[in-house]
């Protein structure tokens, strides 16, 4: 029988990608008791950055939301690997941290990170509701527009 969360992802038309290896001295996921911390994920696809540039000049809010959603998909891929392939072990999404590479006058950071937040609720339902930060910054690695990290409660 197919797992419930895998079925939900299929209904949403989402196929989780192969996970990216860390690009520096860190691990992609770390478990502490009943929580798993997922390192920041960027909007990459097929091993390449799908988006590069800043919000407020190169990207609209809607494009930023798509980039944040891709970050969230990459988070789920890392989480699935950390849970030995079983996303049904997720009790809830505890927190998302969103970083937005934006022009100084850009003010819609929370709207951009909604791309990641909305996906968590679509996938996990009420258990996907979470605490969150949405922070603007002057740059991100490789000039990606968004990076998102996460904490999950698991059993």
From TrEMBL:
Domain of life: Bacteria
Entries under InterPro entries matching the protein: Endoribo_LPSP/chorism_mut-like, RutC-like_sf
Pfam families assigned to the protein according to its UniProt record, in alphabetical order: YjgF_endoribonc
Signal peptide annotation: none
Endoribonuclease L-PSP/chorismate mutase-like domain location: 8-143
SUPFAM superfamilies named among the record's database cross-references: YjgF-like (SSF55298)
Name used for this protein in its record: RidA family protein
Source lineage: Bacteria, Pseudomonadati, Pseudomonadota, Alphaproteobacteria, Hyphomicrobiales
């Amino acid at each position: 029988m197919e797992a419930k969360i895998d079925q939900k992802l299929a209904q949403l038309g989402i196929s989780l990608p192969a996970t990216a290896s860390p690009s520096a001295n860190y691990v992609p996921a770390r478990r502490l008791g009943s929580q798993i911390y997922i390192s920041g994920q960027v909007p990459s696809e097929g091993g390449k950055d799908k988006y590069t540039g800043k919000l407020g000049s190169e990207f609209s809010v809607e494009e930023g939301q798509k980039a944040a959603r891709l970050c969230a998909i990459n988070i789920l891929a890392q989480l699935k690997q950390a849970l030995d392939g079983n996303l049904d072990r997720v009790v809830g999404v505890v927190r998302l941290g969103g970083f937005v590479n934006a022009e100084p006058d850009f003010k819609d950071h929370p709207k951009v990170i909604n791309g990641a937040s909305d996906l968590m609720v679509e996938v996990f339902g009420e258990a996907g509701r979470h605490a969150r930060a949405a922070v603007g910054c002057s740059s991100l690695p490789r000039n990606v527009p968004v990076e998102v990290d996460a904490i999950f409660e698991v059993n």
